[in-house]
Amino acid sequence: MIKRIILLLAISLLSMQASAVMVGDILNINGFMTTGFTKSNEDQGVLLPNSLAISDQYRYTIDSRAGLQISAQINENVSGTIQLLADFQNNSQELEMQAEWAFIRYDITDSLAFKTGRMRLPSLQISEARTIGYSYLWVRPPLEIMDLLANDLIDCLSLSYSTVLGDGDYIFSTSAMIGSNPGVNGKVGGKNAMVTTFALENDIWKIRLAWGQGDVDLHTMSETDAANLNAITSGFSNPALSAFGYNEIADYFDVGDKTVQYLVLGFNMDWNDWLIYSEICQRTADKSIISDGLAYYITLGRRFGKWTPHITYSKTSPSNDVVDSINALPDIPGITSDDTLRAGALLLADDIYNDDQHTITLGVKYIPVPGYDIKFDIMRVTPDDGGVGLFKDSTTGYDGSSVTIYNVAFDMVF
């Protein structure tokens, strides 16, 4: 795969060299890379989102990735952008490449723009630059809020507007999108998606609000997950179990076309070398195994020349209604399959639901030269209320104790 990527890039560069004048006039090429390693004091486990495997052995692929962004300016109003990303998905040891962005933009006026194609959902403040490690302080953005909005691509129509207010001290911007979520890499997709954002900023602070909703689309699920979901839904729908409350559980697993909404409020400040980043997200869903949830983080940092030490507190508090409801089901006299049905439902729900957890992250970002940084983080992850938090592999015997994770990353942009 790596050789294939290098060959494709080489061909592209040779082609562009052959038409250097045209490239200079039309194309703009940027790139980014992150390499790094991580380890923890826990023997093994899986830390969501994106099934990030951690252990007490050094792992070199969790945060490593590379990307190219190619923009073509056809005329003063029309442009196109493609962003290619190569990373390690779902603990794979082989780089996988996909187009994260592929859209056409038409500038209707200096303030109003229309875009169509694939983009990142602008749900969070860092959503559009999530893969560009150089653009933020941490080695890894706060997992608690990233997990709540883990699926962040959208194929859509988008309209955006920005303007300067007052004497030029403030910038107001807003955007609206309609489309569908592709649900790549086996993730559940979404349809009938609508997203809108509002932001107000000046040279010191920025406040931002984002809202979105969509209906669950199961067509992008893996065949195994879809089969498990259908089997559990059918089992709980058995009329013979209705008197014992089992049929009510079936509605949790019948998630197709259920509506999910989110609301995000963010605030940033950069004043006299002091930095504050903060965000809070509320997710709500129709009755299903996709839980309601609240997540937030706050980061405080301080620049000292090329060094920026920082501290972050982040927390997630999802609802576990379906797990509580399954555990409350009674045994059915004369029927032994009910135990198997409950166990299967709990196993599937455990893969989707997460428990409360909070994380304290201490880190430092060092920029020796512009365009290149070195970052070091120590994360102390603590599951709350007797659960296992975002640690999700039931085969490892993880007992829910606090875990310390050490992260090092090297970022570059060009």
Notes on the protein architecture:
The radius of gyration is 23 Å and the shape is globular. It is built from 7 helices and 18 strands. A hairpin with a 4-residue loop joins strand 14 (293-302) and strand 15. Residues 1-21 have low confidence and may be disordered. By secondary structure, the protein is an alpha+beta fold. Helix 4 (223-236) crosses helix 7 and helix 6 runs antiparallel to helix 7. The protein starts with a helix and ends with a strand. The strands form 2 sheets. A 16-stranded antiparallel β-barrel has the order 1-4-5-6-7-8-9-10-11-12-13-14-15-16-17-18. A two-stranded antiparallel sheet has the order 2-3.
Descriptive labels:
414 residues, alpha+beta, 16-stranded antiparallel beta barrel, two-stranded antiparallel ribbon, 18 strands, 18% helix, globular, disordered N terminus
- From N to C, what is the helix and strand string? HHEEEEEEEHEEEEHHEEEEHHEEE
Strand percent estimate: over 45%
Number of strands: 18
Strand order of the largest sheet: 1-4-5-6-7-8-9-10-11-12-13-14-15-16-17-18
Mean pLDDT: 83
CA radius of gyration is 23 Å
